[in-house]
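Changelog-linked ticket: adenosine-5'-triphosphate example.
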Amino acid sequence: MSEEKSLNFIEEIIEQDLASGKYSSIHTRFPPEPNGYLHIGHAKSICLNFGLANKYGGKVNLRFDDTNPTTEDTEYVQSIKADVQWLGFNWTSELYTSDYFEQLYEFAVSLINKGLAYVDDSTSEVIATQKGTPTQPGIRNEFSNRTVAENLDLFIAMRAGKYKDGEKVLRAKVDMNSPNMHMRDPIIYRIKHAHHHRSGDAWCIYPMYDFAHGQSDAIEQITHSICTLEFIPHRELYNWFIQQLNIFPSHQYEFARLNMTYTVMSKRKLLQLVQDNCVTAWDDPRMPTISAMRRRGYPAAAIREFCDKIGIAKRENLIDIGLLEFCVRENLNKTAQRRMVVFDPLKVVITNYEAAEEILLSENNPEDEHGGSREVPFSRALYIERDDFMEVAPKKYFRLAPGQMVRLKSAYIIQCNEVIKDAEGNVTEVHCTYIPESRSGNDTSGIHVKGTLHWVSIAHAVIAEVRMYDRLFTVENVAEAEGDFKSYINPQSLQVIEKVYAEPALKNTTFEDRHQFIRKGYFCLDAVSSPDKLVFNRTVTLKDTWAKEVKKV
Ligand code: ATP
Ligand code: MG
């Protein structure tokens, strides 16, 4: 019997709404503001909104919430579309709040006509003081007594560009005594003489988030408008506008945003990292953005799996970044092709190997029976990892040491006979003999060794650069750390090894390929890689190295 996953609270609401006939089908939306690249927190919202629409056979809109002309850009629009698609989702419609500017303006006019909105000439400071405090009611000023005709004239003049930024605002006339500060005659339109990335210079007044979001939901007939917990206090106003304007009754539901250890999850902070050159770009592989994760080699399926695992809650918490890495590792373990790459080479000469070379076969992925195998050339001169050899080895050292035997992965057992050093006493190469009957897959030698080493044939090796990434920050809860968050950047978050020696199969690797460099980690080509200069990113380590450190403490 298959185990049925319990429903999250939003699925419960949806199933009730469908069962009661409140809706015959559901309609959700993902509403990013195009003022930055999407991060892993957005992935949670995407998986939720698109996932629900897919699960219940409904519709889902991608709506760009583009009401802030000064911070938004088409570059961000393009990146958001690419990221959502890469995550594996398709939207029913691509829409823009800016396309509703005329309609939203009409909504504002209709509020004015009902005596429910007025033009206020006060400065933002005065408006803020007159709002009162959560324990003290606000006060209405003289501007709230303007007549409908006066307000209409002024609002039309605002639109026509008669006033400068900040000279006037349009406010909804709600309730200055409400315990909910958002209800105290909120500003719904402000003057901003700024070029908009889509509407150009058509407008110099722009609606505030609260006046745009719910109405956009209603225009699109969104049934379940899902947002994060900080919007709970906005819900009353969301409903008030829908009621006063008598438009489609969309409903807002809130879930806990994703917070993750050792990183930041706010576009504003991510933009700072880019602008201050703390990272190279929005898609620097250390960033928590979707584009960075794609570049770093995270499979989209692993991100979806992660979002599924963390679930949907009503209370905020901090998710261990190790869980995301676990999902990536699990996925790659099943799909990544195994390859041998030596990072810090030590030359090994097989003194009794007479052939010029031979071609061995090695499995691409022992976890995948259809993974096939590849050819790996073996020859007399090889590289192994320098730290896989010790001249004076302790007991239980199962790697290479004088007199000791090891297996070379997918090849032969070798024994170390001689250590060659330079004038300073540094080991420059080791001389070994191989056991011809010990060839992997056809081993009749009867010899058992405990250590297996990766290696590459020097004559066939391909040179590459590898970039190793670590946590971007040194503290677990960056958002709550004192002072400037940038002071917690991990100076070791990027380590570049300019020259590693890879087996020749890696010469033809593509950007889509995922590899496990045996005993090293999971790797993929970086965006800057070219046939002349291969550059690999370490996607994730083989094991959770941080979990061990935590246990040690
Ligand atoms: P940021 O604070 O990073 O700028 P935002 O909420 O301003 O994020 P939007 O572009 O407005 O970003 O967000 C689009 C949608 O994604 C919203 O519905 C928002 O609630 C959701 N979202 C944003 N951040 C997270 C997060 N960390 N976890 C879950 N959902 C998120
Ligand atoms: Mg926002």
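Closing comment: Example verified and attached. The domain at 9-255 is CATH 3.40.50.620 (Rossmann fold). Residues 272 and 331 are 32 Å apart (CA to CA).
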